[in-house]
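Cross-check.
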Amino acid sequence: SVLPIIIGMAAPTIRSLLVAGFFVMSSLVYILFSDTCKKFYTGQSDNFVNRLVEHNNGETKSIKMCIPWKLVWSKEVATRAEAMMLERKIKSRGAARFLKDLGVELA
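Predicted model, tokenized:
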């Protein structure tokens, strides 16, 4: 299921799921946008809130020059493997084109 898209707002914390008696941590695939650089960043994490803080504190060397980053799209998936597949799909399509295909426009 797609989490609500709230431009510029942090996503809700990731929920833990109880599936068939096993404790499973879900993963979040996300797309961030930087107004500073006019670029997208696509990633996945099992702790999105912490990851967004790391991005906006400049702890990710390749994108620190573009802070601040804001969330423009996210989707929670059941497993890390699913998250990695969706992240790869978005990156191969390009975040801007992926969002356009979904009808998501930046304000």
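The longest helix spans residues 80-93. The beta strands are 16-19, 22-25, 27-34, 39-45, 69-77. Passed to J.P. for a second look.
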